[in-house]
Amino acid sequence: xxxxxxxxxxxxxxxxxxxxxxxxxxxxxxxxxxxxxxxxxxxxxxxxxxxxxxxxxxxxxxxxxxx
Amino acid sequence: xxxxxxxxxxxxxxxxxxxxxxxxxxxxxxxxxxxxxxxxxxxxxxxxxxxxxxxxxxxxxxxxxxxxxxxxxxxxxxxxxxxxxxxxxxxxxxxxxxxxxxxxxxxxxxxxxxxxxxxxxxxxxxxxxxxxxxxxxxxxxxxxxxxxxxxxxxx
Lengths: 67, 155
Fold this sequence. Notes:
The structure holds two protein chains of two kinds. Chain A is mainly alpha-helical. Chain A contains three helices and no strands. Chain A has helices at 2-13, 24-33, 38-62. In chain A, helix 1 packs across helix 3. By secondary structure, chain B is mainly alpha-helical. Chain B has helices spanning 4-29, 45-77, 86-111, 123-147. In chain B, helix 1 (4-29) crosses helix 3 (86-111). The relative contact order of chain B is 0.20. The interface between A and B is medium-sized, with 28 and 40 residues.
């Protein structure tokens, strides 16, 4: 959850740079990105990587390896 | 001796590089799908740009995963108790690629349906083939890791 919120916060911070200001389609697409689907899409994008990362953590803990 | 650091580094590298194969070949070169092409088909400039942003964010995550794998591999190299073998690293990378295909295939294509491998005729066959390719890669990778030496050969 913290990772997802950080991801969304980073995206929000980068928002002003996300569209060419003279391009209406780019602005419209950016507004779509920051619409109601933002958190759901962020979760979907992160989920496979998060699951695999958790697997790696589990493998290392099971082997008694500390990072 | 332990191989776990090599295995986790390989899994992370394989996940990232496998994600790049998906993104570069299927999203960009062949243009079969984008991250959200089933929920927002890229039929006009706005939806194309919308999908491009999320494809870019997906690539950012695969890049970070690759960097994380390199970092783990570097740390593994600094440990005297890590058993190095090509089979372990390559096998783990194949498994990582396979895990990405399988997990992403099930979550994004089947459960959420945000995109499919090759939309249209034979869509389900392509999706199931993608998941199957992931399982084959995981199996091949696991086999390679299992048969690789768990300790360096002593001369």
